[in-house]
Amino acid sequence: MEDRSEVIQVRCDKLPAPPRTRLQVWFIRVCSSIVVWTCLFQIVVVGELWHPHLLYKITNRISQITQLPLRVEVAVQSPPSLPPARNYTSNGFLRVSCNGGLNQMRAAICDMVTVARFLNLTLVVPELDKASFWADPSNFEDIFDVKHFIESLRDEVRIVRRLPKKFHRKYGIKPLEMPPISWSNEKYYMQQILPLFSKHKVLHFNKTDARMANNGLPLDLQKLRCRVNFQALKFTSQIETLGYKLIRMLQEKGPFVALHLRYEMDMLAFSGCTHGCSKEESEELKQMRYAYPWWRDKEIDSELKRSQGLCPLTPEETILVLKALGFDKDTQIYIAAGEIYGGEGRLAALRSAFPRIVKKEKLLAPEELQQFQNHSSQMAALDFMVSVASNTFIPTYDGNMAKLVEGHRRYLGFKKTILLDRKRLVELLDIHHNGTLPWKEFADSVQSAHERRMGQPTRRKVIMDKPKEEDYFYANPQECLCEETSCDDLLSPGNSSGKG
């Protein structure tokens, strides 16, 4: 009997509850909504008594939420305004293969856009060097925002991502490959390059470094070179995000110096600068130089080059120069460079003198840098961003990065850039080391030698028929540093390049 009652009870428990009517469900929802909105209204009214802007913020946020589909539709209908596309008949396609490191290629891209502009050509997105010492597989779009590059220059030159198929070799089109003559002006391109397009619809420049003159070009061409450099060549979002993170981390700890310490193995090997190296290290660097047939200078007198100011400072020399310039041990220093020859051991003395030395590899987690590993140009882009943003930039050698960062900092308001006079410094360092120049006199002499080498407004040094010895355009693009066509007020007669 008990078993039967238990079965009846279980069956009763399993019976479903009587379903609610639609009217009941509707009534419950309406009541709930009224309660919620009443509470919200009371909160807003009370809050408004204490914070007059609260109502505006809340109602504005509600408006944004309720109108979200409409706002998205408006955004789709109103894209960011682009400059009007320039309408011209193209004389042909220009392909370019840039050579060198990141900043050498960057300057070349600016030049090639300018060439395409005044020759009325269609430029194919530049190809980046993959066969250099660094063997970086990066393409243009891996480093620069290709869409921004194309669209931001559409009022000047037509740029396409790739050559149209009908101009490929398999269709019988053979491009003319050649390197343009170095340091050429617009007359060379107009008179010797443009006529080639009557026969060849595609021209391929297989070398692009330093193919335009520093000086003597029309003002509009010089300004276009600047526009490409400072506005069109924008790094990818991945590079910018990490670069800005580095900058933010450094700025949160106070002002910082970006030290471009050019003491990498390839730099020392190819320059032949071995001052301060052991015999074994000097031999290793020499063997590396001989391992590359394309490097013509095999036997190099290191001490002679150093005395001429043609070698980067060693880390040990850099310590004395920084101290002489007034930087103390509390100075925050970011090392903008690749792997230093000799590793952390070679940096030990520098770290001891300036304990607040940091590198991107120490500031960022390994997984953050993983996507950039084995991509030297992308790593250099991070250093470029930090160097441009630094409170003070100090390059120990005037390579391409040093020159382009210098020019960028001038463009941003002549930010402090200490351009080391290495020839004078070597003289002072040697005299100080042999004990005949006390520290006080050494420091005074170093500071005196650099009073006019701080990145302040100066005129480019022009040397007729010796463009390699002139001041580099991208280090001091004086035509782009003021609004007027003449910078005479900014570049007074007393100002001239202190480099030399």
From TrEMBL:
<dbReference type="GO" id="GO:0006004">
    <property type="term" value="P:fucose metabolic process"/>
</dbReference>
<feature type="transmembrane region" description="Helical">
    <location>
        <begin position="26"/>
        <end position="50"/>
    </location>
</feature>
<keyword id="KW-0808">Transferase</keyword>
<keyword id="KW-0472">Membrane</keyword>
<comment type="pathway">
    <text>Glycan metabolism.</text>
</comment>
<dbReference type="InterPro" id="IPR024709">
    <property type="entry name" value="FucosylTrfase_pln"/>
</dbReference>
<keyword id="KW-0325">Glycoprotein</keyword>
<keyword id="KW-0812">Transmembrane</keyword>
<dbReference type="GO" id="GO:0016757">
    <property type="term" value="F:glycosyltransferase activity"/>
</dbReference>
<dbReference type="GO" id="GO:0009507">
    <property type="term" value="C:chloroplast"/>
</dbReference>
<comment type="similarity">
    <text>Belongs to the glycosyltransferase GT106 family.</text>
</comment>
<dbReference type="Pfam" id="PF10250">
    <property type="entry name" value="O-FucT"/>
</dbReference>
<dbReference type="GO" id="GO:0016020">
    <property type="term" value="C:membrane"/>
</dbReference>
<keyword id="KW-0294">Fucose metabolism</keyword>
<protein>
    <recommendedName>
        <fullName>O-fucosyltransferase family protein</fullName>
    </recommendedName>
</protein>
<keyword id="KW-0735">Signal-anchor</keyword>
<keyword id="KW-0119">Carbohydrate metabolism</keyword>
<dbReference type="InterPro" id="IPR019378">
    <property type="entry name" value="GDP-Fuc_O-FucTrfase"/>
</dbReference>
<keyword id="KW-0328">Glycosyltransferase</keyword>
<keyword id="KW-1133">Transmembrane helix</keyword>
